[in-house]
Specification:
single chain; alpha+beta; three-stranded antiparallel beta sheet; 11 helices; flat
Length: about 400
């Protein structure tokens, strides 16, 4: 059979089994909301604020290098030459590291990420993400099993174990080892925002008018009602028909429903939607370009980045790193662990950085070459010496001894 991955189709062998139950749409983040809107990934991505938040959560960590360490603080030792580093930097032949890890985090947010391990002599040499709709997780007799299909909702073609895949769950509410989709968990809030978006689109498609009421003093037949209604709609619906002269006869009159976007408080509700999505994802609303007029206080880019890292990114990054480090095929040594290097995300502005460098240099705990390295400059001769600063504040310098009296 073929194993379908974003990087291409991979040949797999094994017994075929089609006895499993067909997965429910809710397993892939498709659920009905209170507003009557069916919410899935594609529909939720139609909300600009939600897609922006999703890209920040997925693409920002994908830009960060992952570092391998041995031990814990304060004896933690970085291992830049660890064999896992090559797999992390180039997971497979078909995808860049950025593509791979952005997609994997999106799968974790969607509930569960499954990575197919390509092993040579017991060592993992490549990783391929499996498409969530074709690779599902469920529990049977207390054990986790992973089922692979060739098409969505199709029969199970293969069951695999943790020896063949790495499973990284997302938010766990119903089961401690099986994640649920963030979209499914917030389907009612997202469904309300989608319904509001649909109302706005239909309002504008109808020339900015919510609709009209055609009245008649008598009781016309159904054929007469349909004829007048269809004739009016064909000539006066849509922006292309704006401004056309309307004519009614035969005792018909026209009245408009007194509803507008302002009356519906659409602008205020749109602001609430952005803030609601910020609450769902942990992304600061300022990064979602929240409409002006509803922000509380002002924040600097550094403060927004810290909030994004602390309340938005951190939990997903920890899930990814710990999920990879827990696999004994990829990390045979249990003393090794994985972390994202987020130093660039928290990088301060030039003035703040240079002021900090000056204080650190005068304090005698950083060298000039270390500062140059952080700013991308080459080392210079004599730049590895620590500056010794007395209590007075001026650096020590060599001086000639005072003359004998």
């Amino acid at each position: 059979m073929l194993l379908k991955t974003p990087g291409g189709n991979r040949e797999m062998f094994g017994a075929l089994d089609s006895s499993a139950l067909i997965p429910r749409p809710s397993q892939h983040g498709s659920s009905m909301s209170y507003s009557g809107q069916r919410v899935d990934v594609e529909r939720a991505a139609g909300l600009p604020a939600f897609l922006r938040a999703l890209r920040l959560l997925c693409e920002t960590p994908a830009e960060m290098p992952m570092r391998v360490f041995r031990g814990e603080e304060p004896e933690r030792e970085p291992l830049p030459d660890a064999p896992q580093v090559a797999v992390l930097r180039r997971p497979n032949e078909d995808m860049t590291a950025y593509q791979m890890w952005a997609y994997v985090i999106a799968c974790i947010i969607g509930g569960n990420a499954l990575l197919w391990k390509v092993k040579v002599r017991g060592s993992v040499k490549a990783l391929y993400p499996l498409i969530p709709g074709l690779a599902t997780v469920r529990r049977k007799d207390g054990e986790l099993i992973y089922e692979i299909r060739e098409r969505l909702y199709g029969p199970v073609k293969k069951r695999v174990s943790k020896a063949e895949v790495i499973h990284i769950p997302g938010i766990t509410l119903k089961d401690p080892s099986i994640g649920i989709s963030l979209i499914e968990a917030h389907r009612h809030g997202l469904g309300t925002a989608l319904a509001r978006q649909e109302f706005e689109g239909r309002y504008l498609a109808n020339d900015g008018h919510p609709g009209v009421v055609l009245k008649h003093e008598q009781s016309p037949t159904k054929e007469q009602r349909d004829e007048v209604r269809e004739g009016y709609e064909s000539r006066h619906t849509g922006p292309a028909n704006a401004g056309r002269t309307g004519m009614l006869w035969g005792g018909w009159s026209l009245d408009r429903a007194a509803v507008s976007l302002a009356d519906a408080q659409y602008v205020e509700l749109q602001r609430f939607s952005v803030q609601d999505i910020a609450r769902m994802t942990g992304v600061p609303s300022g990064m979602l370009d929240e409409p002006p007029g509803n922000k509380v206080g002002a924040s600097t880019p550094e403060q927004d980045n810290m909030r994004l890292l602390t309340f938005g990114l951190s939990s997903w990054m920890v899930r990814l790193c710990q999920g990879l480090a827990a696999d004994r095929d990829l990390f045979p040594d249990p003393d090794r662990h994985l972390e994202h290097d987020h130093s660039k995300l928290l990088r301060a502005d030039v003035k703040t950085r240079f002021e900090a460098y000056r204080l650190a240099r005068q304090g005698g705990w950083i060298t000039g070459n270390e500062i140059r390295s952080k700013e991308g400059y080459e080392s210079i001769e004599g730049g590895d010496e620590l500056q010794q600063t007395p209590v007075g504040g001026a650096p020590n310098t060599e001086t000639d001894p005072p003359p004998a009296s």
